[in-house]
Design goal:
single chain; 227 residues; alpha/beta; 7 helices; 33% helix; binds flavin mononucleotide
Length: 227
Protein backbone atom coordinates (compact mmCIF):
# COMPACT_ATOMS: atom_id res chain seq x y z
CA UNK A 1 0.00 0.00 0.00
CA UNK A 2 1.37 3.43 -0.90
CA UNK A 3 1.78 5.96 1.86
CA UNK A 4 1.62 9.73 1.57
CA UNK A 5 4.64 11.76 2.70
CA UNK A 6 4.13 15.31 3.96
CA UNK A 7 6.85 17.90 3.43
CA UNK A 8 7.06 20.88 5.73
CA UNK A 9 9.75 23.58 5.48
CA UNK A 10 11.03 25.08 8.73
CA UNK A 11 11.78 28.82 8.66
CA UNK A 12 11.78 31.93 10.82
CA UNK A 13 11.46 35.63 9.98
CA UNK A 14 15.10 36.23 10.81
CA UNK A 15 18.71 35.82 9.62
CA UNK A 16 19.88 32.93 11.81
CA UNK A 17 17.22 30.35 12.65
CA UNK A 18 18.36 26.86 13.79
CA UNK A 19 21.77 26.78 12.09
CA UNK A 20 23.89 29.42 13.83
CA UNK A 21 26.52 30.87 11.53
CA UNK A 22 25.04 29.52 8.30
CA UNK A 23 24.31 33.11 7.29
CA UNK A 24 28.07 33.61 6.75
CA UNK A 25 28.10 31.12 3.85
CA UNK A 26 28.73 32.99 0.58
CA UNK A 27 25.56 31.62 -1.01
CA UNK A 28 23.30 32.22 2.02
CA UNK A 29 20.72 34.96 1.42
CA UNK A 30 19.01 35.06 4.84
CA UNK A 31 19.98 38.71 5.26
CA UNK A 32 17.19 39.37 2.72
CA UNK A 33 14.56 38.47 5.33
CA UNK A 34 13.17 42.04 5.18
CA UNK A 35 12.73 41.80 1.40
CA UNK A 36 9.24 40.66 0.29
CA UNK A 37 10.72 38.82 -2.70
CA UNK A 38 12.84 36.70 -0.36
CA UNK A 39 9.59 35.18 0.95
CA UNK A 40 7.60 35.02 -2.27
CA UNK A 41 10.54 33.29 -4.00
CA UNK A 42 10.71 30.78 -1.14
CA UNK A 43 6.95 30.18 -1.26
CA UNK A 44 7.00 29.56 -5.04
CA UNK A 45 10.02 27.28 -4.72
CA UNK A 46 8.34 25.21 -2.00
CA UNK A 47 5.12 24.89 -3.95
CA UNK A 48 7.00 23.90 -7.12
CA UNK A 49 8.85 21.33 -4.98
CA UNK A 50 5.51 19.88 -3.78
CA UNK A 51 5.92 20.97 -0.17
CA UNK A 52 2.68 20.86 1.83
CA UNK A 53 3.48 23.73 4.16
CA UNK A 54 5.97 26.16 5.57
CA UNK A 55 6.28 26.28 9.34
CA UNK A 56 7.34 29.62 10.79
CA UNK A 57 8.99 29.48 14.19
CA UNK A 58 8.88 32.44 16.57
CA UNK A 59 9.93 33.64 20.01
CA UNK A 60 9.11 36.90 21.77
CA UNK A 61 12.44 37.48 23.47
CA UNK A 62 16.19 37.20 23.01
CA UNK A 63 18.76 34.64 24.13
CA UNK A 64 20.49 36.48 26.96
CA UNK A 65 21.57 33.70 29.32
CA UNK A 66 25.04 32.99 27.84
CA UNK A 67 27.51 35.21 29.75
CA UNK A 68 24.47 37.03 31.20
CA UNK A 69 24.03 39.19 28.13
CA UNK A 70 22.37 39.45 24.72
CA UNK A 71 25.72 40.38 23.17
CA UNK A 72 26.59 36.96 21.71
CA UNK A 73 23.10 36.53 20.23
CA UNK A 74 23.25 39.97 18.64
CA UNK A 75 26.78 39.59 17.34
CA UNK A 76 26.10 36.25 15.67
CA UNK A 77 22.47 36.87 14.66
CA UNK A 78 21.03 34.09 16.81
CA UNK A 79 17.31 34.57 16.15
CA UNK A 80 17.74 38.32 16.37
CA UNK A 81 16.75 40.60 14.67
CA UNK A 82 13.39 38.86 14.48
CA UNK A 83 10.32 40.12 12.63
CA UNK A 84 6.70 39.06 13.06
CA UNK A 85 5.91 35.74 11.31
CA UNK A 86 2.21 36.41 10.68
CA UNK A 87 3.00 39.35 8.40
CA UNK A 88 4.70 36.99 5.94
CA UNK A 89 1.61 34.90 5.37
CA UNK A 90 -0.41 37.13 3.00
CA UNK A 91 2.72 37.69 0.89
CA UNK A 92 3.42 33.99 0.51
CA UNK A 93 -0.26 33.10 0.11
CA UNK A 94 -0.58 35.56 -2.75
CA UNK A 95 2.35 33.90 -4.52
CA UNK A 96 0.98 30.34 -4.19
CA UNK A 97 -2.21 28.31 -4.40
CA UNK A 98 -1.79 25.27 -2.17
CA UNK A 99 1.05 25.90 0.28
CA UNK A 100 -0.08 25.77 3.92
CA UNK A 101 1.21 28.06 6.69
CA UNK A 102 1.95 26.82 10.19
CA UNK A 103 2.68 29.89 12.25
CA UNK A 104 4.01 29.93 15.79
CA UNK A 105 2.20 32.21 18.22
CA UNK A 106 2.86 32.13 21.95
CA UNK A 107 -0.52 32.24 23.65
CA UNK A 108 0.80 33.29 27.06
CA UNK A 109 1.25 36.90 26.05
CA UNK A 110 -1.70 37.66 23.80
CA UNK A 111 -5.40 37.85 24.56
CA UNK A 112 -7.40 35.07 22.88
CA UNK A 113 -10.10 37.47 21.66
CA UNK A 114 -7.70 39.55 19.53
CA UNK A 115 -5.64 36.52 18.50
CA UNK A 116 -8.74 34.67 17.27
CA UNK A 117 -9.56 37.64 15.07
CA UNK A 118 -6.06 37.80 13.58
CA UNK A 119 -6.13 34.09 12.74
CA UNK A 120 -9.63 34.27 11.26
CA UNK A 121 -8.55 37.18 9.07
CA UNK A 122 -5.59 35.19 7.79
CA UNK A 123 -7.77 32.13 7.37
CA UNK A 124 -9.98 34.18 5.02
CA UNK A 125 -7.10 35.75 3.14
CA UNK A 126 -5.33 32.41 2.60
CA UNK A 127 -8.58 30.60 1.75
CA UNK A 128 -8.21 28.23 4.67
CA UNK A 129 -4.48 27.51 4.51
CA UNK A 130 -3.62 28.60 8.08
CA UNK A 131 -2.26 26.44 10.86
CA UNK A 132 -1.11 27.39 14.34
CA UNK A 133 1.94 26.08 16.20
CA UNK A 134 0.58 26.49 19.72
CA UNK A 135 3.35 27.35 22.19
CA UNK A 136 3.47 28.82 25.68
CA UNK A 137 6.95 30.36 25.32
CA UNK A 138 10.21 29.39 27.00
CA UNK A 139 12.14 32.65 27.40
CA UNK A 140 12.26 34.72 30.58
CA UNK A 141 13.47 37.58 28.38
CA UNK A 142 10.08 37.55 26.64
CA UNK A 143 8.18 37.49 29.94
CA UNK A 144 10.23 40.38 31.36
CA UNK A 145 9.36 42.61 28.41
CA UNK A 146 5.70 41.72 28.65
CA UNK A 147 5.12 42.83 32.20
CA UNK A 148 6.20 39.80 34.24
CA UNK A 149 9.29 39.22 36.37
CA UNK A 150 9.89 35.85 34.77
CA UNK A 151 7.80 33.44 32.78
CA UNK A 152 5.00 31.60 34.51
CA UNK A 153 5.87 28.16 35.84
CA UNK A 154 5.41 25.22 33.48
CA UNK A 155 2.16 23.91 34.93
CA UNK A 156 0.57 27.32 35.19
CA UNK A 157 1.49 28.08 31.57
CA UNK A 158 -0.29 24.92 30.56
CA UNK A 159 -3.34 25.63 32.76
CA UNK A 160 -3.58 29.01 31.08
CA UNK A 161 -3.10 27.35 27.68
CA UNK A 162 -6.00 24.96 28.39
CA UNK A 163 -8.32 27.86 29.04
CA UNK A 164 -6.94 29.80 26.10
CA UNK A 165 -7.78 26.90 23.77
CA UNK A 166 -11.25 26.75 25.26
CA UNK A 167 -11.82 30.46 24.52
CA UNK A 168 -10.51 30.44 20.93
CA UNK A 169 -12.39 27.18 20.34
CA UNK A 170 -15.66 28.79 21.43
CA UNK A 171 -14.97 31.88 19.30
CA UNK A 172 -14.14 29.87 16.18
CA UNK A 173 -16.60 27.01 16.54
CA UNK A 174 -19.58 28.21 18.56
CA UNK A 175 -20.07 31.88 17.89
CA UNK A 176 -21.19 31.86 14.26
CA UNK A 177 -23.47 29.17 12.90
CA UNK A 178 -23.10 28.04 9.31
CA UNK A 179 -25.40 30.14 7.18
CA UNK A 180 -25.25 33.17 9.50
CA UNK A 181 -24.05 35.33 6.62
CA UNK A 182 -27.04 35.69 4.30
CA UNK A 183 -25.89 38.72 2.27
CA UNK A 184 -29.44 39.41 1.08
CA UNK A 185 -29.29 42.72 -0.78
CA UNK A 186 -33.05 42.74 -1.52
CA UNK A 187 -34.02 42.58 2.16
CA UNK A 188 -31.01 44.60 3.29
CA UNK A 189 -29.96 41.81 5.65
CA UNK A 190 -26.32 40.85 5.74
CA UNK A 191 -26.20 38.67 8.84
CA UNK A 192 -28.95 36.67 10.52
CA UNK A 193 -28.51 37.78 14.15
CA UNK A 194 -30.26 34.63 15.42
CA UNK A 195 -27.29 32.60 14.13
CA UNK A 196 -24.58 34.57 15.91
CA UNK A 197 -24.01 33.78 19.58
CA UNK A 198 -22.15 35.39 22.46
CA UNK A 199 -19.76 32.85 23.95
CA UNK A 200 -20.25 34.02 27.58
CA UNK A 201 -16.86 32.73 28.67
CA UNK A 202 -15.89 33.40 32.26
CA UNK A 203 -12.89 31.48 33.55
CA UNK A 204 -9.87 31.76 35.83
CA UNK A 205 -7.76 33.73 33.32
CA UNK A 206 -10.16 35.14 30.73
CA UNK A 207 -13.54 36.79 30.54
CA UNK A 208 -14.98 37.01 27.03
CA UNK A 209 -18.74 37.62 27.09
CA UNK A 210 -19.36 38.54 23.46
CA UNK A 211 -19.28 37.20 19.92
CA UNK A 212 -16.33 36.50 17.64
CA UNK A 213 -15.72 39.58 15.50
CA UNK A 214 -15.10 37.63 12.31
CA UNK A 215 -17.48 35.62 10.22
CA UNK A 216 -16.45 32.04 9.52
CA UNK A 217 -14.85 31.17 6.17
CA UNK A 218 -18.32 30.78 4.65
CA UNK A 219 -18.43 34.56 4.31
CA UNK A 220 -15.75 34.24 1.68
CA UNK A 221 -17.63 31.54 -0.19
CA UNK A 222 -20.88 33.52 -0.08
CA UNK A 223 -19.33 36.72 -1.33
CA UNK A 224 -17.48 34.92 -4.14
CA UNK A 225 -20.75 33.33 -5.27
CA UNK A 226 -22.37 36.76 -5.48
CA UNK A 227 -19.61 38.34 -7.57
C1 LIG B 1 9.48 21.07 16.24
C2 LIG B 1 9.38 22.06 17.38
C3 LIG B 1 9.28 23.41 17.08
C4 LIG B 1 9.19 24.36 18.11
N1 LIG B 1 9.09 25.67 17.79
C5 LIG B 1 8.95 26.59 18.77
C6 LIG B 1 8.82 27.96 18.45
O1 LIG B 1 8.87 28.37 17.28
N2 LIG B 1 8.66 28.84 19.48
C7 LIG B 1 8.62 28.44 20.79
O2 LIG B 1 8.44 29.29 21.66
N3 LIG B 1 8.75 27.14 21.12
C8 LIG B 1 8.92 26.21 20.14
N4 LIG B 1 9.10 24.89 20.48
C9 LIG B 1 9.24 24.53 21.90
C10 LIG B 1 7.93 24.11 22.53
O3 LIG B 1 7.04 25.20 22.55
C11 LIG B 1 8.15 23.65 23.99
O4 LIG B 1 8.66 24.69 24.77
C12 LIG B 1 9.10 22.50 24.10
O5 LIG B 1 8.68 21.49 23.19
C13 LIG B 1 9.20 21.98 25.54
O6 LIG B 1 7.93 21.52 25.96
P1 LIG B 1 7.30 21.94 27.36
O7 LIG B 1 7.19 23.45 27.34
O8 LIG B 1 5.98 21.25 27.35
O9 LIG B 1 8.19 21.46 28.43
C14 LIG B 1 9.19 23.94 19.46
C15 LIG B 1 9.27 22.56 19.74
C16 LIG B 1 9.37 21.64 18.74
C17 LIG B 1 9.46 20.17 19.09
Amino acid sequence: MSRRIRFNAFQMNTVGHQSPGLWTHPRDTSHRYTDPEHWTELARLLEAGRFDAVFLADVLGVYDVYQGSVEAALKHAVQVPLNDPLALVPLMAQATEHLGFGVTCALTYEHPYTFARRMSTLDHLTRGRMGWNIVTGYLDSAARNLGLERQLGHDERYDLADEYMEVVGKLWEQSWEDGAVVNDKQRGVYIDPAKVHAIAHEGRYYKVPGIHLCAPPLLRAASRKDC
